[in-house]
Amino acid sequence: MTDLTPTPSTPGLHVSKPSPSAPAQGSAVCHCGATATATGDAQVLRLVQGWEANHGPAHNKGGNQ
Predict the structure, then answer these.
(1) What is the pLDDT of residue 5?
(2) For the chain, how big is the Rg over CA atoms in Å?
């Protein structure tokens, strides 16, 4: 399987939760240079919310890239 972890050359958001009892893990790398990681369901949820609000697709709102 391909490594889905985001890098500066392949920015994005990756979340994993191998089992219902395991804590979620997430990592994000934006093309603007911002990076973040999180461990734990609540922290990963905040990482995803922050990514959606401030990075990735948010950079394309209003014509900004």
Answers:
(1) 87
(2) 12
